[in-house]
Write a structure and sequence with these properties.
With 271 residues, the chain is an alpha/beta fold. Helix content is 44%, strand content 14%. It has one domain (3-270): Divalent-metal-dependent TIM barrel enzymes (TIM Barrel, Alpha-Beta Barrel), CATH 3.20.20. The chain contains 10 helices and 8 strands.
Protein backbone atom coordinates (compact mmCIF):
# COMPACT_ATOMS: atom_id res chain seq x y z
CA UNK A 1 0.00 0.00 0.00
CA UNK A 2 1.35 3.40 -0.96
CA UNK A 3 1.84 5.95 1.80
CA UNK A 4 1.62 9.73 1.96
CA UNK A 5 4.42 12.10 2.94
CA UNK A 6 5.00 15.83 3.02
CA UNK A 7 8.18 17.89 2.93
CA UNK A 8 9.50 19.83 5.92
CA UNK A 9 12.41 22.21 5.28
CA UNK A 10 14.73 23.94 7.72
CA UNK A 11 17.18 25.47 5.23
CA UNK A 12 17.00 29.26 4.97
CA UNK A 13 18.52 29.20 1.49
CA UNK A 14 15.63 26.99 0.32
CA UNK A 15 12.81 29.28 1.45
CA UNK A 16 11.71 29.76 -2.16
CA UNK A 17 12.03 26.06 -2.96
CA UNK A 18 9.43 23.30 -3.36
CA UNK A 19 8.91 22.45 0.29
CA UNK A 20 5.60 22.75 2.08
CA UNK A 21 6.29 23.55 5.71
CA UNK A 22 9.20 25.71 6.89
CA UNK A 23 8.09 26.21 10.49
CA UNK A 24 10.09 24.75 13.41
CA UNK A 25 10.01 20.97 13.24
CA UNK A 26 7.74 20.37 16.27
CA UNK A 27 5.07 22.56 14.68
CA UNK A 28 5.56 21.02 11.24
CA UNK A 29 5.35 17.45 12.57
CA UNK A 30 2.12 18.39 14.32
CA UNK A 31 0.64 19.89 11.14
CA UNK A 32 1.57 16.82 9.09
CA UNK A 33 -0.04 14.51 11.62
CA UNK A 34 -3.19 16.62 11.96
CA UNK A 35 -3.68 16.53 8.18
CA UNK A 36 -3.40 12.74 8.13
CA UNK A 37 -0.03 12.19 6.47
CA UNK A 38 1.81 8.93 7.07
CA UNK A 39 5.30 10.42 7.01
CA UNK A 40 7.49 13.46 6.54
CA UNK A 41 10.46 14.05 4.25
CA UNK A 42 13.15 16.23 5.86
CA UNK A 43 15.30 18.87 4.17
CA UNK A 44 17.86 19.90 6.79
CA UNK A 45 20.99 22.11 6.75
CA UNK A 46 23.10 19.12 7.75
CA UNK A 47 23.34 16.12 10.07
CA UNK A 48 24.16 18.22 13.13
CA UNK A 49 21.06 20.39 12.88
CA UNK A 50 19.08 18.17 15.24
CA UNK A 51 19.71 15.06 17.30
CA UNK A 52 18.22 12.11 15.39
CA UNK A 53 16.77 10.80 18.65
CA UNK A 54 14.71 13.98 18.92
CA UNK A 55 13.45 13.33 15.38
CA UNK A 56 12.56 9.77 16.35
CA UNK A 57 10.74 11.03 19.43
CA UNK A 58 8.71 13.58 17.45
CA UNK A 59 7.88 10.95 14.85
CA UNK A 60 6.74 8.51 17.51
CA UNK A 61 4.68 11.12 19.35
CA UNK A 62 2.83 12.00 16.14
CA UNK A 63 2.69 8.45 14.72
CA UNK A 64 4.69 9.51 11.67
CA UNK A 65 7.53 7.84 9.81
CA UNK A 66 10.50 9.56 8.20
CA UNK A 67 10.11 8.96 4.48
CA UNK A 68 13.52 10.29 3.44
CA UNK A 69 16.15 12.92 4.18
CA UNK A 70 17.43 15.29 1.51
CA UNK A 71 21.05 16.18 0.80
CA UNK A 72 20.37 19.30 -1.27
CA UNK A 73 21.62 21.66 1.42
CA UNK A 74 25.08 20.55 0.40
CA UNK A 75 24.48 22.39 -2.86
CA UNK A 76 22.21 25.29 -1.93
CA UNK A 77 23.94 26.11 1.35
CA UNK A 78 27.55 24.99 0.80
CA UNK A 79 27.92 24.98 -2.99
CA UNK A 80 29.11 21.37 -3.12
CA UNK A 81 28.67 18.72 -5.79
CA UNK A 82 29.99 15.20 -6.27
CA UNK A 83 31.27 16.08 -9.74
CA UNK A 84 33.00 19.39 -9.04
CA UNK A 85 36.33 19.83 -10.84
CA UNK A 86 37.86 20.88 -7.51
CA UNK A 87 38.96 17.71 -5.67
CA UNK A 88 38.56 19.36 -2.27
CA UNK A 89 34.95 20.27 -3.04
CA UNK A 90 34.27 16.75 -4.34
CA UNK A 91 35.68 15.29 -1.15
CA UNK A 92 33.62 17.60 1.06
CA UNK A 93 30.53 16.87 -1.03
CA UNK A 94 30.92 13.14 -0.50
CA UNK A 95 31.53 13.64 3.21
CA UNK A 96 28.30 15.65 3.42
CA UNK A 97 26.24 13.03 1.58
CA UNK A 98 27.73 10.21 3.66
CA UNK A 99 26.92 12.13 6.84
CA UNK A 100 23.30 12.47 5.74
CA UNK A 101 23.14 8.75 4.96
CA UNK A 102 24.33 8.11 8.51
CA UNK A 103 21.72 10.54 9.86
CA UNK A 104 19.05 8.82 7.79
CA UNK A 105 20.10 5.45 9.13
CA UNK A 106 19.47 6.70 12.67
CA UNK A 107 15.91 7.73 11.81
CA UNK A 108 15.20 4.72 9.58
CA UNK A 109 15.17 6.69 6.34
CA UNK A 110 17.07 6.74 3.04
CA UNK A 111 18.96 9.82 1.88
CA UNK A 112 18.24 11.40 -1.51
CA UNK A 113 20.81 12.59 -4.04
CA UNK A 114 19.40 15.30 -6.28
CA UNK A 115 21.17 18.58 -6.98
CA UNK A 116 24.47 17.43 -5.48
CA UNK A 117 25.03 15.12 -8.46
CA UNK A 118 26.18 18.22 -10.34
CA UNK A 119 26.67 18.46 -14.09
CA UNK A 120 29.36 18.41 -16.75
CA UNK A 121 30.35 21.06 -19.28
CA UNK A 122 33.07 23.54 -20.20
CA UNK A 123 36.43 22.02 -19.32
CA UNK A 124 34.76 19.10 -17.54
CA UNK A 125 33.94 16.25 -19.91
CA UNK A 126 30.94 13.98 -19.59
CA UNK A 127 33.27 10.99 -19.27
CA UNK A 128 35.19 12.49 -16.35
CA UNK A 129 32.07 13.78 -14.62
CA UNK A 130 30.40 10.39 -14.94
CA UNK A 131 33.49 8.65 -13.56
CA UNK A 132 33.43 10.86 -10.47
CA UNK A 133 29.70 10.32 -10.05
CA UNK A 134 30.16 6.56 -10.29
CA UNK A 135 32.93 6.59 -7.71
CA UNK A 136 30.76 8.61 -5.35
CA UNK A 137 27.69 6.44 -5.85
CA UNK A 138 29.68 3.30 -5.14
CA UNK A 139 30.66 4.85 -1.81
CA UNK A 140 27.12 5.99 -0.99
CA UNK A 141 25.66 2.63 -1.99
CA UNK A 142 28.04 0.85 0.38
CA UNK A 143 27.36 3.30 3.21
CA UNK A 144 23.61 2.91 2.80
CA UNK A 145 24.00 -0.86 3.08
CA UNK A 146 26.01 -0.43 6.28
CA UNK A 147 23.17 1.65 7.70
CA UNK A 148 20.48 -0.81 6.67
CA UNK A 149 18.77 1.70 4.40
CA UNK A 150 18.60 2.37 0.68
CA UNK A 151 20.12 5.33 -1.12
CA UNK A 152 17.90 7.28 -3.50
CA UNK A 153 19.19 8.70 -6.78
CA UNK A 154 17.00 11.31 -8.46
CA UNK A 155 17.04 11.91 -12.23
CA UNK A 156 16.41 15.63 -12.66
CA UNK A 157 15.17 17.58 -15.67
CA UNK A 158 17.59 18.92 -18.29
CA UNK A 159 17.60 22.42 -16.80
CA UNK A 160 19.03 21.15 -13.51
CA UNK A 161 21.47 18.44 -14.57
CA UNK A 162 22.83 16.69 -17.64
CA UNK A 163 23.79 13.51 -15.79
CA UNK A 164 20.58 11.47 -16.04
CA UNK A 165 17.20 12.88 -17.02
CA UNK A 166 15.21 9.68 -17.56
CA UNK A 167 14.35 6.74 -15.33
CA UNK A 168 15.35 4.24 -18.02
CA UNK A 169 18.92 5.45 -18.48
CA UNK A 170 19.39 5.88 -14.74
CA UNK A 171 18.08 2.36 -14.07
CA UNK A 172 20.43 0.90 -16.68
CA UNK A 173 23.33 2.79 -15.10
CA UNK A 174 22.54 1.48 -11.62
CA UNK A 175 22.35 -2.06 -13.02
CA UNK A 176 25.60 -1.66 -14.96
CA UNK A 177 27.49 -0.69 -11.83
CA UNK A 178 25.71 -3.14 -9.52
CA UNK A 179 24.48 -0.38 -7.23
CA UNK A 180 22.16 -2.79 -5.47
CA UNK A 181 21.30 -0.60 -2.50
CA UNK A 182 20.45 2.41 -4.65
CA UNK A 183 16.95 3.07 -5.95
CA UNK A 184 15.44 5.74 -8.15
CA UNK A 185 13.28 8.70 -7.28
CA UNK A 186 10.43 9.14 -9.72
CA UNK A 187 9.81 12.88 -9.43
CA UNK A 188 6.58 13.52 -11.31
CA UNK A 189 7.47 17.16 -12.00
CA UNK A 190 10.78 16.28 -13.64
CA UNK A 191 9.14 13.37 -15.46
CA UNK A 192 6.47 15.68 -16.89
CA UNK A 193 9.30 17.54 -18.62
CA UNK A 194 11.46 14.61 -19.70
CA UNK A 195 9.41 11.44 -20.12
CA UNK A 196 7.27 10.76 -23.18
CA UNK A 197 5.03 8.57 -21.02
CA UNK A 198 5.51 8.74 -17.27
CA UNK A 199 3.50 5.62 -16.57
CA UNK A 200 5.50 3.54 -19.04
CA UNK A 201 8.76 4.93 -17.67
CA UNK A 202 7.74 3.72 -14.22
CA UNK A 203 6.80 0.29 -15.56
CA UNK A 204 10.12 0.00 -17.38
CA UNK A 205 12.11 0.98 -14.28
CA UNK A 206 10.10 -1.48 -12.20
CA UNK A 207 11.60 -2.40 -8.85
CA UNK A 208 14.28 0.27 -9.22
CA UNK A 209 11.62 2.87 -8.32
CA UNK A 210 12.05 3.44 -4.59
CA UNK A 211 10.55 6.86 -3.90
CA UNK A 212 8.08 9.19 -5.62
CA UNK A 213 7.81 12.95 -5.49
CA UNK A 214 4.07 13.55 -5.75
CA UNK A 215 3.90 16.82 -7.68
CA UNK A 216 1.81 18.20 -10.51
CA UNK A 217 3.04 19.65 -13.81
CA UNK A 218 3.64 23.09 -12.27
CA UNK A 219 5.39 21.75 -9.13
CA UNK A 220 2.25 22.52 -7.14
CA UNK A 221 0.02 20.09 -5.26
CA UNK A 222 -1.44 17.27 -7.33
CA UNK A 223 -4.72 18.56 -8.73
CA UNK A 224 -3.44 22.10 -9.23
CA UNK A 225 -1.74 21.29 -12.56
CA UNK A 226 -2.46 19.24 -15.66
CA UNK A 227 -0.58 15.95 -15.18
CA UNK A 228 -2.85 12.95 -15.78
CA UNK A 229 -2.26 11.04 -12.56
CA UNK A 230 -4.54 8.02 -12.93
CA UNK A 231 -2.25 6.24 -15.40
CA UNK A 232 0.78 7.00 -13.23
CA UNK A 233 -0.88 5.50 -10.16
CA UNK A 234 -1.88 2.48 -12.24
CA UNK A 235 1.75 2.01 -13.26
CA UNK A 236 2.89 2.24 -9.63
CA UNK A 237 0.32 -0.39 -8.69
CA UNK A 238 1.51 -2.63 -11.53
CA UNK A 239 5.09 -2.60 -10.26
CA UNK A 240 3.73 -3.22 -6.74
CA UNK A 241 5.20 0.01 -5.43
CA UNK A 242 4.48 0.33 -1.72
CA UNK A 243 6.62 3.34 -0.86
CA UNK A 244 5.87 6.99 -0.30
CA UNK A 245 4.16 9.57 -2.47
CA UNK A 246 5.94 12.59 -1.04
CA UNK A 247 4.82 16.13 -1.76
CA UNK A 248 7.91 18.06 -2.83
CA UNK A 249 5.87 21.02 -4.02
CA UNK A 250 5.59 24.78 -3.78
CA UNK A 251 3.53 25.88 -0.76
CA UNK A 252 0.91 27.56 -2.95
CA UNK A 253 -1.51 29.21 -2.53
CA UNK A 254 -0.47 28.62 1.09
CA UNK A 255 1.33 25.81 2.92
CA UNK A 256 -1.91 24.63 4.50
CA UNK A 257 -3.86 24.71 1.22
CA UNK A 258 -1.08 22.85 -0.59
CA UNK A 259 -0.97 20.19 2.11
CA UNK A 260 -4.74 19.82 2.20
CA UNK A 261 -4.90 19.45 -1.59
CA UNK A 262 -2.12 16.87 -1.48
CA UNK A 263 -3.80 14.61 1.05
CA UNK A 264 -7.14 15.01 -0.76
CA UNK A 265 -5.56 13.94 -4.07
CA UNK A 266 -3.60 11.13 -2.42
CA UNK A 267 -6.74 9.64 -0.92
CA UNK A 268 -8.74 10.01 -4.13
CA UNK A 269 -6.05 8.33 -6.22
CA UNK A 270 -5.17 5.50 -3.84
CA UNK A 271 -8.59 4.59 -2.45
Amino acid sequence: MMKSAITLAQVAEAKAGPFVFHQPLPESFSKAADLGFDAVELFLPGPDFIDPEIVNSMASDHELSIAAVGTGAGMVKHGLSLTDADPDKRSRALEFVISMIDFGGKVGAPAILGSMQGKWGGDLSQEQSRAWLTEALQATDARAAENGVEFIYEPLNRYETNQFNHLSTAAAYLDEHALNHTVLLADLFHMNIEEANAGQAIRDAGSRVGHVHFADSNRQAVGFGHTEMTSILSALEEIEYDGYLSAEIFPLPSPEAAAEQTIKSFRALTS
